[in-house]
Amino acid sequence: MKVLLVQPPIERMLDTLLPRFVEEEAGFYPPLGLLYAAAGLERRPPPGLELAAIDAVARGLDHPRLLREVARRAPDVVGITATTFTLPDAVALARGIKSLDPAVHVVMGGPHCGLYPRETASLPHVDSVVAGEAEETFPDLVAALAAGREPAGIPGTAVRGRDGEVVVGPPRPVPDRLDDLPLPARHLLPASDYFAVHGRHPAMTTMLTSRGCPYDCSFCYHSMGRKFRARSPSGVVDEMEAIAASGVREVFVFDDTFTVNRKRVAAICDEIVARGLALRVSWDVRARVDGVDGPLLEKLRRAGCDRISFGVESGTDEVLAALKKRIDLGAASRVVRDAKSLGFTTYADFIIGNPGETREQVRRTVDYACTLPLDFAQFALLTPYPETELYREGRQRGILPRGDYWRAFARAPEAPFTPPLWEEHMGRDELFAALGDAYRRFYLRPRFVLRRLKGARSPGDLVRDARAALKLALAGPPGPPSPGPDPR
Q1: For residues 465 and 204, what is the distance between their CA atoms, to the nearest angstrom?
Q2: Pick from 363, 349, 387: nearest CA to 441
Q3: What sections of 82-173 are H helices per DSSP?
Q4: What's the CA gap between 116 and 114, in Å, rounded?
Q5: HSE of 449 in the Cβ direction (CA atoms, 13 Å)?
Q6: Residue 154 is part of a domain; what is its CATH number?
Q7: What SS3 state is found at 249?
Q8: Fewest CB atoms less than 10 Å from the CB: which of 24, 129, 165, 483?
Protein backbone atom coordinates (compact mmCIF):
# COMPACT_ATOMS: atom_id res chain seq x y z
CA MET A 1 0.00 0.00 0.00
CA LYS A 2 1.29 3.44 -0.99
CA VAL A 3 0.68 6.16 1.61
CA LEU A 4 1.56 9.78 0.91
CA LEU A 5 1.43 12.47 3.60
CA VAL A 6 1.17 16.06 2.41
CA GLN A 7 1.37 19.57 3.79
CA PRO A 8 -0.53 21.54 1.15
CA PRO A 9 0.54 24.83 -0.43
CA ILE A 10 -0.58 28.05 1.22
CA GLU A 11 -2.48 29.96 -1.42
CA ARG A 12 -5.98 30.32 0.08
CA MET A 13 -5.07 30.62 3.76
CA LEU A 14 -7.26 32.78 5.98
CA ASP A 15 -5.47 35.95 6.97
CA THR A 16 -3.45 35.41 10.16
CA LEU A 17 -3.71 39.11 11.03
CA LEU A 18 0.05 39.46 11.04
CA PRO A 19 1.56 41.98 8.63
CA ARG A 20 2.60 40.40 5.36
CA PHE A 21 6.27 41.33 5.85
CA VAL A 22 6.33 39.32 9.11
CA GLU A 23 4.98 36.20 7.41
CA GLU A 24 7.33 36.53 4.44
CA GLU A 25 10.40 36.68 6.69
CA ALA A 26 9.43 33.89 9.11
CA GLY A 27 11.08 30.85 7.50
CA PHE A 28 9.80 27.28 7.23
CA TYR A 29 9.11 24.79 10.03
CA PRO A 30 8.69 21.01 9.67
CA PRO A 31 5.08 19.71 9.89
CA LEU A 32 5.52 17.79 13.16
CA GLY A 33 1.98 16.42 13.19
CA LEU A 34 2.50 14.70 9.84
CA LEU A 35 5.85 13.33 10.94
CA TYR A 36 4.41 11.88 14.16
CA ALA A 37 1.61 10.23 12.17
CA ALA A 38 4.22 8.81 9.79
CA ALA A 39 6.28 7.49 12.70
CA GLY A 40 3.24 5.72 14.11
CA LEU A 41 2.63 4.09 10.75
CA GLU A 42 6.26 3.03 10.41
CA ARG A 43 6.05 1.37 13.81
CA ARG A 44 2.97 -0.66 12.75
CA PRO A 45 3.17 -0.88 8.96
CA PRO A 46 0.63 -2.78 6.86
CA PRO A 47 2.11 -5.36 4.46
CA GLY A 48 3.97 -3.73 1.56
CA LEU A 49 3.85 -0.20 2.97
CA GLU A 50 5.46 2.49 0.80
CA LEU A 51 5.45 5.70 2.80
CA ALA A 52 6.44 9.18 1.59
CA ALA A 53 5.84 12.80 2.53
CA ILE A 54 5.75 16.12 0.70
CA ASP A 55 5.88 19.55 2.30
CA ALA A 56 4.60 21.76 -0.51
CA VAL A 57 5.21 24.93 1.51
CA ALA A 58 8.90 24.27 2.08
CA ARG A 59 9.35 22.94 -1.47
CA GLY A 60 7.63 25.97 -3.01
CA LEU A 61 5.09 23.81 -4.87
CA ASP A 62 1.82 25.37 -5.95
CA HIS A 63 -1.32 23.25 -6.35
CA PRO A 64 -0.82 22.29 -10.03
CA ARG A 65 2.80 21.20 -9.51
CA LEU A 66 1.90 19.35 -6.32
CA LEU A 67 -0.88 17.46 -8.09
CA ARG A 68 1.52 16.41 -10.83
CA GLU A 69 3.81 15.03 -8.13
CA VAL A 70 0.91 13.18 -6.49
CA ALA A 71 -0.08 11.71 -9.85
CA ARG A 72 3.49 10.53 -10.42
CA ARG A 73 3.54 8.71 -7.08
CA ALA A 74 0.06 7.13 -7.58
CA PRO A 75 -0.75 6.68 -3.86
CA ASP A 76 -3.58 4.57 -2.44
CA VAL A 77 -3.99 6.82 0.61
CA VAL A 78 -3.20 10.52 0.94
CA GLY A 79 -3.08 12.15 4.37
CA ILE A 80 -3.45 15.94 4.42
CA THR A 81 -2.73 18.13 7.42
CA ALA A 82 -4.95 21.15 8.15
CA THR A 83 -5.28 23.92 10.65
CA THR A 84 -8.45 25.99 10.66
CA PHE A 85 -6.61 28.77 8.84
CA THR A 86 -5.18 26.45 6.14
CA LEU A 87 -8.37 24.44 5.64
CA PRO A 88 -9.24 26.04 2.26
CA ASP A 89 -5.93 24.83 0.81
CA ALA A 90 -6.37 21.37 2.32
CA VAL A 91 -9.83 21.11 0.77
CA ALA A 92 -8.54 22.32 -2.61
CA LEU A 93 -5.87 19.63 -2.51
CA ALA A 94 -8.40 16.94 -1.62
CA ARG A 95 -10.57 18.00 -4.55
CA GLY A 96 -7.56 17.91 -6.89
CA ILE A 97 -6.55 14.42 -5.73
CA LYS A 98 -10.05 13.06 -6.31
CA SER A 99 -10.02 14.57 -9.79
CA LEU A 100 -6.86 12.55 -10.48
CA ASP A 101 -8.26 9.30 -9.10
CA PRO A 102 -11.57 9.02 -7.22
CA ALA A 103 -10.38 5.72 -5.69
CA VAL A 104 -7.66 7.40 -3.62
CA HIS A 105 -8.66 7.48 0.04
CA VAL A 106 -8.20 11.02 1.35
CA VAL A 107 -7.58 11.36 5.09
CA MET A 108 -7.48 14.74 6.76
CA GLY A 109 -5.84 15.42 10.12
CA GLY A 110 -4.39 18.24 12.16
CA PRO A 111 -5.67 20.65 14.80
CA HIS A 112 -8.77 21.67 12.85
CA CYS A 113 -9.97 18.09 12.61
CA GLY A 114 -9.88 17.68 16.36
CA LEU A 115 -12.24 20.65 16.64
CA TYR A 116 -14.64 19.73 13.85
CA PRO A 117 -14.32 16.02 12.94
CA ARG A 118 -17.89 15.56 11.70
CA GLU A 119 -17.90 18.76 9.66
CA THR A 120 -14.55 17.90 8.07
CA ALA A 121 -15.54 14.33 7.19
CA SER A 122 -18.75 15.71 5.63
CA LEU A 123 -16.79 17.79 3.12
CA PRO A 124 -16.76 16.60 -0.49
CA HIS A 125 -13.56 14.76 -1.45
CA VAL A 126 -12.69 13.89 2.19
CA ASP A 127 -13.15 10.21 3.05
CA SER A 128 -12.03 10.14 6.67
CA VAL A 129 -10.61 12.27 9.46
CA VAL A 130 -8.08 11.66 12.21
CA ALA A 131 -9.26 13.72 15.18
CA GLY A 132 -6.58 14.39 17.77
CA GLU A 133 -3.15 12.86 18.25
CA ALA A 134 -2.46 10.52 15.37
CA GLU A 135 0.30 8.08 16.42
CA GLU A 136 -2.17 5.28 17.17
CA THR A 137 -5.24 6.36 15.22
CA PHE A 138 -3.61 6.73 11.82
CA PRO A 139 -2.03 3.23 11.80
CA ASP A 140 -5.38 1.73 12.83
CA LEU A 141 -7.11 3.54 9.98
CA VAL A 142 -4.52 2.51 7.38
CA ALA A 143 -4.55 -1.10 8.63
CA ALA A 144 -8.32 -1.26 8.10
CA LEU A 145 -8.02 0.17 4.59
CA ALA A 146 -5.16 -2.20 3.71
CA ALA A 147 -7.25 -5.18 4.88
CA GLY A 148 -10.30 -4.01 2.94
CA ARG A 149 -12.30 -3.41 6.12
CA GLU A 150 -14.72 -0.56 6.67
CA PRO A 151 -12.81 1.92 8.89
CA ALA A 152 -15.91 3.51 10.44
CA GLY A 153 -15.97 3.41 14.23
CA ILE A 154 -12.23 3.38 14.87
CA PRO A 155 -11.52 5.47 18.00
CA GLY A 156 -10.35 8.95 17.11
CA THR A 157 -11.79 8.97 13.58
CA ALA A 158 -14.71 10.31 11.61
CA VAL A 159 -15.51 8.40 8.42
CA ARG A 160 -17.95 9.19 5.64
CA GLY A 161 -19.63 6.07 4.33
CA ARG A 162 -20.84 5.29 0.83
CA ASP A 163 -24.29 6.61 1.75
CA GLY A 164 -22.79 9.95 2.80
CA GLU A 165 -23.44 9.41 6.50
CA VAL A 166 -20.56 10.31 8.79
CA VAL A 167 -19.70 7.92 11.61
CA VAL A 168 -17.71 9.56 14.41
CA GLY A 169 -15.77 6.98 16.38
CA PRO A 170 -15.39 7.18 20.15
CA PRO A 171 -12.70 9.53 21.46
CA ARG A 172 -9.26 7.98 21.72
CA PRO A 173 -7.60 8.54 25.11
CA VAL A 174 -4.55 10.75 24.81
CA PRO A 175 -1.25 9.01 25.54
CA ASP A 176 0.13 9.81 28.98
CA ARG A 177 3.47 8.04 28.51
CA LEU A 178 4.98 10.20 25.80
CA ASP A 179 8.28 8.32 26.01
CA ASP A 180 6.47 5.32 24.53
CA LEU A 181 5.66 7.22 21.32
CA PRO A 182 7.98 7.02 18.32
CA LEU A 183 10.07 10.02 17.38
CA PRO A 184 8.88 12.05 14.36
CA ALA A 185 9.87 10.50 11.03
CA ARG A 186 12.12 13.41 10.09
CA HIS A 187 13.98 11.29 7.52
CA LEU A 188 10.97 11.63 5.19
CA LEU A 189 11.67 15.33 4.54
CA PRO A 190 14.97 17.09 3.72
CA ALA A 191 16.33 18.88 6.79
CA SER A 192 17.83 21.53 4.51
CA ASP A 193 14.31 22.74 3.62
CA TYR A 194 13.77 24.20 7.08
CA PHE A 195 15.14 27.38 8.58
CA ALA A 196 14.06 30.32 10.74
CA VAL A 197 14.83 33.94 10.01
CA HIS A 198 16.36 34.30 13.48
CA GLY A 199 18.21 30.98 13.42
CA ARG A 200 21.97 30.61 13.69
CA HIS A 201 22.46 27.59 11.42
CA PRO A 202 21.47 26.79 7.83
CA ALA A 203 19.18 23.89 8.82
CA MET A 204 16.87 23.51 11.79
CA THR A 205 14.11 21.30 13.11
CA THR A 206 11.41 21.41 15.74
CA MET A 207 10.48 19.07 18.56
CA LEU A 208 7.94 18.60 21.35
CA THR A 209 9.02 17.67 24.86
CA SER A 210 5.51 17.90 26.31
CA ARG A 211 1.86 18.14 25.32
CA GLY A 212 -0.98 20.06 26.90
CA CYS A 213 -1.06 23.38 28.74
CA PRO A 214 -2.45 23.81 32.28
CA TYR A 215 -2.97 27.57 32.02
CA ASP A 216 -6.33 29.15 31.23
CA CYS A 217 -5.59 32.20 29.06
CA SER A 218 -8.93 33.16 27.56
CA PHE A 219 -7.59 33.61 24.00
CA CYS A 220 -6.03 30.14 23.73
CA TYR A 221 -7.46 26.89 22.37
CA HIS A 222 -5.83 23.87 24.00
CA SER A 223 -5.43 21.59 20.99
CA MET A 224 -3.69 18.94 23.11
CA GLY A 225 -5.77 19.47 26.23
CA ARG A 226 -5.16 21.16 29.56
CA LYS A 227 -3.44 18.20 31.17
CA PHE A 228 0.32 18.68 31.07
CA ARG A 229 1.98 15.49 29.78
CA ALA A 230 5.75 15.46 29.66
CA ARG A 231 8.51 13.28 28.32
CA SER A 232 11.31 12.25 30.65
CA PRO A 233 14.52 14.29 30.61
CA SER A 234 16.44 11.30 29.22
CA GLY A 235 13.86 10.84 26.46
CA VAL A 236 14.07 14.51 25.51
CA VAL A 237 17.86 14.45 25.31
CA ASP A 238 17.82 11.14 23.39
CA GLU A 239 15.87 12.94 20.66
CA MET A 240 18.25 15.90 20.72
CA GLU A 241 21.17 13.50 20.30
CA ALA A 242 19.43 11.84 17.34
CA ILE A 243 18.88 15.26 15.76
CA ALA A 244 22.54 16.20 16.25
CA ALA A 245 23.64 12.87 14.76
CA SER A 246 21.64 13.70 11.61
CA GLY A 247 23.71 16.85 11.13
CA VAL A 248 21.08 19.35 12.30
CA ARG A 249 22.43 21.69 14.96
CA GLU A 250 19.41 23.88 15.73
CA VAL A 251 16.19 22.83 17.50
CA PHE A 252 13.11 24.90 18.16
CA VAL A 253 11.16 23.42 21.07
CA PHE A 254 7.49 23.92 20.21
CA ASP A 255 5.93 23.06 23.58
CA ASP A 256 3.10 25.44 24.46
CA THR A 257 5.06 26.23 27.63
CA PHE A 258 8.38 24.47 28.17
CA THR A 259 8.83 25.64 31.76
CA VAL A 260 5.65 24.28 33.41
CA ASN A 261 7.72 21.95 35.62
CA ARG A 262 10.94 23.66 36.71
CA LYS A 263 12.48 20.50 38.20
CA ARG A 264 12.02 18.73 34.88
CA VAL A 265 13.58 21.65 32.98
CA ALA A 266 16.58 21.61 35.32
CA ALA A 267 16.94 17.84 34.86
CA ILE A 268 16.86 18.21 31.05
CA CYS A 269 19.60 20.84 31.26
CA ASP A 270 21.72 18.65 33.53
CA GLU A 271 21.32 15.69 31.14
CA ILE A 272 22.36 17.80 28.15
CA VAL A 273 25.48 19.00 29.96
CA ALA A 274 26.33 15.50 31.20
CA ARG A 275 26.23 14.12 27.64
CA GLY A 276 28.35 16.94 26.23
CA LEU A 277 25.54 18.02 23.93
CA ALA A 278 25.48 21.72 24.84
CA LEU A 279 28.09 22.65 22.23
CA ARG A 280 26.57 20.47 19.50
CA VAL A 281 22.96 21.69 19.52
CA SER A 282 21.53 25.18 19.82
CA TRP A 283 17.92 25.26 20.98
CA ASP A 284 15.13 27.62 21.95
CA VAL A 285 12.06 27.45 24.19
CA ARG A 286 8.78 29.20 24.89
CA ALA A 287 8.25 30.23 28.51
CA ARG A 288 6.00 32.22 30.77
CA VAL A 289 7.77 35.02 32.60
CA ASP A 290 6.60 33.50 35.90
CA GLY A 291 8.03 30.10 34.93
CA VAL A 292 11.72 30.98 35.09
CA ASP A 293 14.10 32.74 37.45
CA GLY A 294 17.79 33.62 37.43
CA PRO A 295 19.16 30.20 38.47
CA LEU A 296 16.99 28.35 35.93
CA LEU A 297 17.98 30.77 33.18
CA GLU A 298 21.61 30.10 34.00
CA LYS A 299 21.04 26.35 33.75
CA LEU A 300 19.31 26.75 30.39
CA ARG A 301 22.14 28.87 29.08
CA ARG A 302 24.83 26.40 30.17
CA ALA A 303 22.89 23.65 28.43
CA GLY A 304 23.03 25.41 25.08
CA CYS A 305 19.61 27.09 25.11
CA ASP A 306 20.20 30.11 22.94
CA ARG A 307 16.81 31.75 22.48
CA ILE A 308 13.82 32.24 24.75
CA SER A 309 10.37 33.50 23.80
CA PHE A 310 7.98 35.00 26.35
CA GLY A 311 4.24 35.40 25.95
CA VAL A 312 3.74 38.84 27.48
CA GLU A 313 0.64 39.81 25.43
CA SER A 314 0.04 43.29 26.90
CA GLY A 315 1.75 46.15 28.68
CA THR A 316 -1.25 46.97 30.90
CA ASP A 317 -2.52 45.14 33.95
CA GLU A 318 -6.15 45.69 32.95
CA VAL A 319 -5.78 43.91 29.61
CA LEU A 320 -3.74 41.10 31.15
CA ALA A 321 -6.59 40.53 33.62
CA ALA A 322 -9.13 40.46 30.78
CA LEU A 323 -7.01 37.81 29.00
CA LYS A 324 -6.53 35.83 32.24
CA LYS A 325 -2.80 35.98 31.61
CA ARG A 326 -1.96 36.45 35.31
CA ILE A 327 1.58 37.76 35.06
CA ASP A 328 3.27 40.72 36.71
CA LEU A 329 4.75 43.28 34.33
CA GLY A 330 7.50 44.28 36.74
CA ALA A 331 8.55 40.66 37.07
CA ALA A 332 8.34 40.27 33.30
CA SER A 333 10.77 43.15 32.85
CA ARG A 334 13.22 41.65 35.32
CA VAL A 335 13.10 38.20 33.72
CA VAL A 336 13.63 39.53 30.20
CA ARG A 337 16.55 41.64 31.41
CA ASP A 338 18.04 38.66 33.23
CA ALA A 339 17.74 36.54 30.09
CA LYS A 340 19.36 39.22 27.96
CA SER A 341 22.20 39.70 30.44
CA LEU A 342 22.96 35.97 30.22
CA GLY A 343 23.29 36.17 26.44
CA PHE A 344 19.92 34.78 25.33
CA THR A 345 18.33 36.02 22.15
CA THR A 346 15.04 37.34 23.53
CA TYR A 347 11.56 37.40 22.02
CA ALA A 348 8.12 38.45 23.21
CA ASP A 349 4.61 38.16 21.81
CA PHE A 350 2.01 40.91 22.16
CA ILE A 351 -1.67 41.10 21.19
CA ILE A 352 -3.54 44.19 20.01
CA GLY A 353 -7.31 44.64 20.03
CA ASN A 354 -8.16 42.87 23.28
CA PRO A 355 -11.33 42.94 25.41
CA GLY A 356 -11.77 46.41 26.88
CA GLU A 357 -8.57 47.69 25.27
CA THR A 358 -8.46 51.37 24.30
CA ARG A 359 -6.14 53.23 21.92
CA GLU A 360 -4.24 54.54 24.94
CA GLN A 361 -3.70 51.02 26.28
CA VAL A 362 -2.39 49.89 22.89
CA ARG A 363 0.07 52.78 22.99
CA ARG A 364 1.15 51.75 26.50
CA THR A 365 1.71 48.17 25.34
CA VAL A 366 4.05 49.30 22.56
CA ASP A 367 5.76 51.68 24.99
CA TYR A 368 6.28 48.77 27.37
CA ALA A 369 7.65 46.52 24.61
CA CYS A 370 10.16 49.25 23.73
CA THR A 371 11.47 49.29 27.32
CA LEU A 372 12.41 45.60 27.18
CA PRO A 373 15.79 44.39 25.88
CA LEU A 374 14.18 42.32 23.13
CA ASP A 375 15.78 41.13 19.93
CA PHE A 376 12.38 40.42 18.38
CA ALA A 377 8.81 41.36 19.21
CA GLN A 378 5.75 40.00 17.45
CA PHE A 379 2.51 41.96 17.49
CA ALA A 380 -0.73 40.38 16.30
CA LEU A 381 -4.38 41.37 16.26
CA LEU A 382 -6.61 39.36 18.58
CA THR A 383 -8.43 36.67 16.65
CA PRO A 384 -11.01 34.85 18.80
CA TYR A 385 -10.23 31.26 17.84
CA PRO A 386 -12.78 28.44 17.81
CA GLU A 387 -13.80 26.97 21.16
CA THR A 388 -11.95 29.57 23.20
CA GLU A 389 -13.41 31.47 26.13
CA LEU A 390 -13.11 34.74 24.21
CA TYR A 391 -15.01 33.28 21.26
CA ARG A 392 -17.93 32.38 23.52
CA GLU A 393 -17.79 35.67 25.43
CA GLY A 394 -17.63 37.82 22.31
CA ARG A 395 -20.66 36.13 20.77
CA GLN A 396 -22.65 36.40 24.01
CA ARG A 397 -21.87 40.12 24.31
CA GLY A 398 -22.56 40.83 20.64
CA ILE A 399 -19.03 42.07 19.98
CA LEU A 400 -18.62 39.13 17.59
CA PRO A 401 -21.35 37.71 15.32
CA ARG A 402 -23.70 35.72 17.55
CA GLY A 403 -23.82 32.63 15.37
CA ASP A 404 -21.16 29.88 15.54
CA TYR A 405 -19.32 31.28 12.54
CA TRP A 406 -16.24 29.07 12.89
CA ARG A 407 -18.43 25.95 12.67
CA ALA A 408 -20.20 27.45 9.66
CA PHE A 409 -16.79 28.02 8.05
CA ALA A 410 -15.80 24.40 8.83
CA ARG A 411 -18.88 23.25 6.90
CA ALA A 412 -18.19 25.51 3.90
CA PRO A 413 -14.49 26.44 3.86
CA GLU A 414 -14.46 27.46 0.22
CA ALA A 415 -16.94 30.29 0.74
CA PRO A 416 -15.48 33.79 1.24
CA PHE A 417 -14.69 34.28 4.92
CA THR A 418 -12.81 36.89 6.95
CA PRO A 419 -12.14 36.16 10.65
CA PRO A 420 -13.85 38.83 12.76
CA LEU A 421 -11.80 41.02 15.07
CA TRP A 422 -12.67 42.22 18.57
CA GLU A 423 -14.05 45.65 17.60
CA GLU A 424 -15.03 46.92 21.04
CA HIS A 425 -13.27 50.29 21.20
CA MET A 426 -11.50 50.36 17.81
CA GLY A 427 -12.79 49.54 14.37
CA ARG A 428 -11.10 47.23 11.91
CA ASP A 429 -9.22 49.96 10.05
CA GLU A 430 -7.96 51.43 13.34
CA LEU A 431 -6.77 48.03 14.52
CA PHE A 432 -4.80 47.38 11.35
CA ALA A 433 -3.29 50.86 11.53
CA ALA A 434 -2.31 50.26 15.16
CA LEU A 435 -0.67 46.96 14.21
CA GLY A 436 1.49 48.54 11.52
CA ASP A 437 2.38 51.40 13.84
CA ALA A 438 3.46 48.95 16.57
CA TYR A 439 5.96 47.28 14.24
CA ARG A 440 7.39 50.54 12.99
CA ARG A 441 7.68 52.04 16.47
CA PHE A 442 9.45 48.97 17.81
CA TYR A 443 11.78 48.04 14.94
CA LEU A 444 12.68 51.44 13.50
CA ARG A 445 13.90 52.99 16.77
CA PRO A 446 17.47 54.28 16.29
CA ARG A 447 18.61 52.52 19.46
CA PHE A 448 17.17 49.19 18.30
CA VAL A 449 18.66 49.55 14.80
CA LEU A 450 22.08 50.35 16.24
CA ARG A 451 21.92 47.35 18.57
CA ARG A 452 21.03 45.06 15.67
CA LEU A 453 23.92 46.40 13.61
CA LYS A 454 26.36 45.82 16.46
CA GLY A 455 25.01 42.32 17.06
CA ALA A 456 25.07 41.13 13.43
CA ARG A 457 26.99 37.87 13.17
CA SER A 458 27.57 37.95 9.41
CA PRO A 459 27.00 40.01 6.24
CA GLY A 460 23.95 37.83 5.67
CA ASP A 461 22.46 39.05 8.93
CA LEU A 462 22.96 42.65 7.84
CA VAL A 463 21.30 42.03 4.47
CA ARG A 464 18.37 40.24 6.08
CA ASP A 465 17.85 42.97 8.68
CA ALA A 466 18.11 45.68 6.05
CA ARG A 467 15.53 43.94 3.87
CA ALA A 468 13.10 43.58 6.78
CA ALA A 469 13.63 47.21 7.83
CA LEU A 470 12.93 48.42 4.29
CA LYS A 471 9.68 46.47 4.19
CA LEU A 472 8.68 47.98 7.53
CA ALA A 473 9.50 51.48 6.41
CA LEU A 474 7.66 51.20 3.10
CA ALA A 475 4.63 49.33 4.36
CA GLY A 476 1.49 51.28 5.06
CA PRO A 477 -1.01 49.96 7.56
CA PRO A 478 -1.81 46.36 6.64
CA GLY A 479 -4.96 46.19 4.58
CA PRO A 480 -8.02 44.18 5.57
CA PRO A 481 -7.61 40.50 4.75
CA SER A 482 -8.83 39.15 1.46
CA PRO A 483 -10.67 35.83 1.12
CA GLY A 484 -8.66 35.16 -2.02
CA PRO A 485 -5.13 33.83 -2.44
CA ASP A 486 -2.76 35.02 0.28
CA PRO A 487 0.65 33.43 -0.20
CA ARG A 488 2.52 33.04 3.05
Answers
A1: 20
A2: 363
A3: 87-100, 111-115, 117-121, 137-146
A4: 6
A5: 14
A6: 3.40.50.2300
A7: coil
A8: 165
DSSP string, 301-348: HHTTEEEEEEEEE-SSHHHHHHTT----HHHHHHHHHHHHHTT-EEEE
Alpha carbons 422 and 382: distance in angstroms, whole number: 7
- Asked if 41 and 93 sit in the same domain, the reply is yes
Angle among Cα 314, 30, 78 to the nearest 5 degrees reads 120
Residue 44 shares a structural domain with residue 155 = yes
CB 85 within 8 A of CB 14: yes
80-97 tens-digit pLDDT: 999 999 999 999 999 999
Do the domain assignments include residue 142?
Answer: yes
Summarised one tens digit per residue, pLDDT across range 305-328 is 999 999 999 999 999 999 999 999
Phi, psi (degrees; rounded to nearest 5) at 256: -55, -50
Tell me whether residue 272 is exposed, middle or buried, using C-beta atoms within 10 angstroms of its C-beta: 0 to 12, 13 to 18, 19 or more.
Answer: buried
Give the other-Cβ count within 10 Å of 487's Cβ: 13
Domain hosting 215: range is 198-382+421-474
Same domain, 246 and 144: no
pLDDT in tens, 97-137: 999 999 999 999 999 999 999 999 999 999 999 999 999 99
N- to C-terminal Cα distance for the chain? Answer: 33
CATH number of the domain encompassing residue 207: 3.20.20.70
Q: What is the pTM of this model?
A: 0.91
Highest mean pLDDT among 26-30, 35-39, 201-205, 243-247: 35-39
How far apart are the C-alpha atoms of 310 and 335, rounded to whole Å? 10
Which pLDDT band holds residue 478 (cuts at 50, 70, 90)?
A: very low
